[in-house]
Amino acid sequence: MKAILYISVLSAIFLSQINTQAQSILNNTFKHWTPSGQPAPFNWEEPTDWKSINSMTEWTLAGVSKTTDAYVDSFACQLISVNISGGLPSILCNGEPNLIGSPFSDPSIDIITGGTPITTKPDKLVGYYKFDNNDPSDSGYAVVILKKYNTNLNKPDTVGMGDFLFPEQSTYTKFEIDIDDMMPTATPDSIVIAFYSTDPKKPMGPNFPTTGLIVDSLGLWFAPNSIEDPENKTIEAHVYPNPTNQLLVIDWEGSETYEINVYDVLGQSVKVATGQGEVRLDVSKFPKGQYFIRMTNQNEIQVFTKSFIVN
Fold it and tell me: Average per-residue pLDDT in the chain?
């Protein structure tokens, strides 16, 4: 009896932890939906506490919809690309982000303006998905951004980021998105989660009949506290000038070779370089905005992260 009671208590604690983590993502199982309030054929819905581009694409297709093909509960969220400009992604973002672009050419979401509150720093976003656009070269896409408002600059800093391309899967498959810690000493105040029905770098239109991207049962995963490995210490690097609009210099002490990845705010790699002691990057053709540097050693272990601005 004591053993059974002990296991029951552990199970209750474990389930409580899962529920607490899941509640950090509002409407994480897409059980609740909010109607547009318009008459047919514009009576689309979108998940409560999430924003889609349905209001901009309703004249051709409301690309985000609920489906009863759910992993848990009653509904899951289905995203199908829209037939605009040769094919553009349907987009879903948590919170109340700003809609941008034109409904007739480039409807989109400024995802960095979205997000919902969070007071912890998760290591992964996990969930379940299906994807099929009748073309194996197409992929769904997701990006996670942890941000914290910078009162000095009056704009958010990105303190963590991760992204993922969804390959074809006809049955529900678990996915995990690692969130890189870009600012180890900062605690985020909100989390942005965005899904795209097709890779935004090379979007494709819907090939009907298509499943598109279906996502469900989202959760946040937190790694247990670990003991620091003395063989994998971080390094101190210098990044200058910052801001810049021409040349960015990254230098560090020692002769070890490091790989430098530069990411935009969507978590997409925009430049990769390697060097010993110093790397010089031409950023003159980068669009204005915030970018992030991630340095890794030959064992692919992250040793340094830093943000910079292209003005």
Answer: 85
How far apart, in whole angstroms, are the C-alpha atoms of residue 69 and residue 138? 21
Backbone phi, then psi, for 231, in 5-degree steps? -85, -10
The answer to pTM > 0.85 is no
Spans of all domains in the chain: 8-221, 237-310
Of 278, 132, 123, the residue nearest 207 (C-alpha): 132
Q: Is there a shared CATH topology between the 8-221 domain and the 237-310 domain?
A: no
Q: What is d(CA 27, CA 136) in angstroms, rounded to the nearest whole number? A: 30
| Whether residue 234 has pLDDT greater than 70 | no
Sign of CA dihedral 283, 286, 288, 289: negative
Q: What is the dihedral of CA 166, 182, 200, 195, to 10 degrees?
A: 50
Structural element, H or E, at residue 9: helix 2-22
CATH superfamily of 8-221: BT2081, beta-jelly-roll domain (2.60.120.890)
Residues 169, 167: Cα–Cα separation, whole Å: 6
In a 13 Å sphere around the CA of 135, the CA atoms on its Cβ side amount to 17
Q: Topology of 237-310 in CATH?
A: Immunoglobulin-like (2.60.40)
Torsion region of 53: left, alpha or beta (phi above 0 gives left; psi -120 to 50 gives alpha): alpha
